[in-house]
Amino acid sequence: MKQLGVSIIGTDTDVGKTFITGLLGALAMADGFDVGMVKPVSSSAVPFPQFVTMDEDEMCVGLESKDATYLMQSVGIPESRRHEVNPIALAGDYSPRLAAELAGVEIDYPEVVAHVKKVVAQHDITFVEGAGGITTPLTADITFTNLMKDIAYPAILVADGRLGSINRVVLTYEYAKLHNIDVKGIIVNDTTLVDPFLLKTNIEDMERYTGVPVLGVVPPYQGPNQEHIKLGWGRSFLHTAKIWHAVWGI
Fold this sequence. Notes:
There is one protein chain. By secondary structure, the protein is an alpha/beta fold. It has helices spanning 17-30, 66-75, 82-85, 96-103, 109-120, 144-151, 165-178, 196-210, 227-234, 240-248, and strands at 4-10, 35-38, 41-47, 63-64, 88-91, 125-129, 155-159, 183-189, 214-218. A 6-stranded parallel β-sheet has the order 2-6-1-7-8-9, with helices on both faces. Strands 4-3-5 form a 3-stranded mixed β-sheet. β8 (183-189), α8 and β9 form a beta-alpha-beta unit. The longest helix has 15 residues, at 196-210. The termini are close together.
């Protein structure tokens, strides 16, 4: 089959992009696809519990992106392929631009774009996760909006369902559309504490004001860390045939 990519963007940081990306990847693998994962640039990286030797040209030497680790574990990518998933890991709870500046690291943007496309070309389906919201700075004059536009894959927008989520979804969707990022659907994540009536009406308004479907509504996972149980739980909320058709028409 044709190698397919999808960008996972969010209305903000901490809306659960990584959790949703990992769950979608695991479901895609269970559907029989060869799955790739890319979080090309991540901040908030921490030292490995034990030093991990990597190629000297990798910027993630000695630093672990917990998000990348989660994505790898979700689809069984070994540690030896960490660079494929996360070529640039930076310390500090900052935007990648600021984290890179503080670390004295120069992010080679054309190389980031080329890396993403190379990984996508190697798998049936590849999930490309951004960092923070769509406008998170990547370099001094480039944001993740530029990256998602330049890699040119269809996108899924991850949002919460809380009060104010309609505004965040519509603004993110319209900004993405303005920059030629094709948002195919919305996944609403982590909804346990949202009043059911508010959640229902928020979802209806997200669809009304964007014109794209809500492809799933996912509560927090509180079960054991066992993939077969998590997959069964995930299929209760994410119907992959519907999602793959909405995103790629397959």
